[in-house]
Amino acid sequence: MLVPSIAALLSSVASTPAAGVVLADDRSPAGERRLPERRHLHERSMRGGGGTLFQRFFPRTPGEQPEVISSPLEHALPNVDDGGLGKAYTSVPEPPRKWDVCVVGAGLSGGVIAERYATLRKQSVLIVEKRRHIAGNCYDFLDDQTGLRLNLYGPHNFHTKLTNVWDYVKRFGRWAHYYHKKLAWSEGRFVPFPLNTETLNTIYDQHLMGANETAAFLAKIAEPCGPGGCSNSEQQSVASVGRAAYNQFYRGYTLKQWGVDPSQLDALVTGRISVRSDFDNRYFTDRYQSQPRDGYTRWMAGILSDPLIDLVLGVDWFDVQQRLAGRCGKLIFTGPIDHYFADSGLPKLTYRSLRFEKLAVLNIGEHGYYQPGTSVNYPEMAVPFTRSTEYKHYPGQPRSNHTVVVRETSGADGEPYYPVPNPRNHALYAKYKALADKEALKGVHFVGRLANYKYFNMDQAAISRQATRDRARPPEITTRDHPRAPESARAGDRQRAQDLRRPRPGQRARPAPGQEEEEGAQGGRTRRRAAFRLTSAENLILDARRNSRTESDFDVPRLKFAMFKMLQVLQNG
Of the candidates 297, 310, 335, 327, which has an alpha carbon nearest to the alpha carbon of residue 100? Predict the structure, then answer.
């Protein structure tokens, strides 16, 4: 374990922790820092919510017990919250104002489309949002009770494989490297989820060591689907992880989340959840994974900051549709498609909604946590909620002596969150889509998750172009208007990183790890252990730095200083 002084100095280069490792954010753009020692660990089981739930506390002093306050997750919004833009209207501007494009919804899809029209085509855009805030379901705010940043509509984790999407989103705010890791609470213990080699070793009491052994074991316990393939979520899960793991991790969670048996849902519902044949416990494996350091609301404000974009909050589009007749050259609709065609006579599509319960844990200490990771799934039916999220684990959080855990319960009533993928809804959506194709001839286009009745990841929502079939469809996200740093610049960063390990003029090169050298009468001998520790520490810092910050943000002076201080401490102790 690193000594305290080293732990403090490495705050700028520490990488994201694995679940269960106690870390605290230093609330600076530099990154996270490792605690010099683990605080008093208090573990107890609590009977509540119909099941035995594990709680883990890290109080400030031994014996101190935090205060736990449960309440619905609510946020008292001001008149409007536009992320600090200061330009939002609360009513539609009066005539003769006209716009080239009108967008319904200030969420991710609507915001990106508006920015593309304004930036690349120099066209005027009006956004009408029913809620009193921007950013859609990504909206976050600072909790008055604890000072921590929470998502009002559940956690969001940005990840993408697409370099052009990453280059685009990072233009509008600071981002912190973050690998999301999830745990499942089952049979009285936490295990990594999605299932990986570590999970299988734990629940099946195995000693699998490599990908081949894990794959062979999964093939042994799996029940393959028939020649026609898997037709529902139950078959898909059993074919991937076997009947026992399906019953333990998938069936109960799916029942609570969707309200129907997995055998009645499309195979893609659980097919989206990967099964790993290694020890990788990251929930996503995409190349780019980050969180906006100042929150999604501020990030979305950057997207909407173009002066050609007018923003109206707290106004339902259908209340002002007649007033805006003839004033919009084109309409982009990002809301539920069945709401737009409410007068068509078709039945409504089915959605699942979420209810959130906020558990404020007060006076737990600045380095205190309620659960060992950011997100925990509860697949057992005895526990009424499906998931809990402790936002204090996210990077960029303000310092707080408290923590917050938000528990989610799924239901049929409330805000539409998830389209329900089953044959009835697929057939019904096909009818709505036929109506949408006719509207496209009038310049109305349906974009986004709810408008397409399809679940999108965040990067997919950002580049969604479904149903925009006219010739003047929204411009694509490309790297032409925001190119990456030249390869020569990136190569220069790598070269500078290599130079850090080379001796300066007049200095002798350090021995390779594990080697010894004679230093003459003045110096004595360099110990093998010290050389190994020093070089390993340098490699650790460089690797962490590359992982935790983008190449353009490579802070060479800070890194040199941290390595210099580490050298001093290692040589002195």
Answer: 327
H and E: helices and strands count for the chain: 17, 23
Q: How confident is the model at residue 39 (pLDDT cuts 50, 70, 90)?
A: very low
Contact criterion met (CB below 8 Å) for 296 and 454: no
H-helix segments, 227-267 = 233-245, 251-258
Residue-range domain boundaries for the chain: 79-179+286-350+420-480, 182-271, 487-572
For residues 246 and 223, the answer to whether their CB atoms sit within 8 Å is no
79-179+286-350+420-480: CATH superfamily: NAD(P)-binding Rossmann-like Domain (3.40.50.720)
Write out the two tokens for 141.
């705010």
The CA distance from 221 to 479, in Å, is 46
Q: Which residue has the tokens 């994201």?
A: 16
The three-state secondary structure class of 373 is coil
For the segment 307-334, the average pLDDT, to the nearest whole number, is 97
Mean pLDDT, all residues of the chain: 77
pLDDT, one tens digit per residue, over 386-414 is 999 999 999 999 999 999 999 999 999 99
d(CA 370, CA 239) in angstroms, rounded, equals 35
pLDDT at 555 over 60: no
**In this model, does residue 139 exceed pLDDT 70?**
yes
pLDDT (tens digit per residue) in 54-63: 444 443 344 4
Question: End-to-end alpha-carbon separation of the chain, Å?
Answer: 13
Beta-carbon count within 10 A of 376 CB: 23
- Three-class SS of residue 487? helix
Alpha helices of 289-445 — where are they, by DSSP H?
A: 296-303, 317-320, 337-340, 423-440
Torsion sign, CA atoms 420, 423, 429, 433: positive
- 3-state class (DSSP) for residue 28: strand
Q: What angle do CA 486, 289, 273 make, to 5 degrees?
A: 135
